[in-house]
Structure formats: structure tokens, C-alpha cells
Amino acid sequence: MGSMTIRDIPDDVIRRLEERAASTGRSREAEVRAILAESVTPAKDWAAFESARELLRPQLAGRTFGNSVDDLAAESRRLG
């Protein structure tokens, strides 16, 4: 498995990353790995996610899960 070093990350980005990691119960490093993996997922997988999300929408009505689901849906639409 490879590794990489990323330099010159703005403090506000690190702060938001730490907040996101805390909200998902992951370490900052694990959160970065998850974000990277999600960002390179083929568009067809996003379409499957959207379909599943729509099927589950009635069961999830009224529950809050933070912005992560909405963020994934927006990324899905952006990727096409």
C-alpha cells in the first residue's frame, strides 16, 4: 500500500477535516483516506447510490444524518 505527504494545507481546511472526522468517528487520517476513495469512485457507483437513496428516502424521513448524504448526492450529480 502506498503513502503520500500533502503539504501546505490551510488551517481552516484541517479544522473542517477534523470536525468531519469527529462526526464520522474516524481519525483524521482515516477520514482523508475515505474522502480520497470516495472522490475516485466511478460515476456508475454514484448512480447506484442515488437509486438506493431514493428507495430508502421514505424510511429515513424525519431523521437527520448531518450533511454527508447530501454532500454525496451533490457529488454524484456533479460527476454525472
Your description of this structure?
With 80 residues, the chain is mainly α. The chain folds into two domains: 8-40; 42-80, no CATH class. It has four helices and no strands. Helix content is 70%, strand content 0%.
Number of strands: 0
The gross shape turns out to be globular
Order of helices and strands: HHHH
What low-confidence regions span 5 or more consecutive residues with pLDDT below 50? Answer: none
Gyration radius (Cα, Å) is: 15 Å
The largest pleated sheet is described as: none
Task: Describe the structure concisely.
The protein has 80 residues and is mainly alpha-helical.
Task: Spell out the blueprint of helices and strands.
Layout: H1 11-24, H2 28-39, H3 43-60, H4 68-79
Helix pairs in contact: 1-2, 3-4
What keyword list fits this structure?
80 residues; mainly alpha; 2 domains
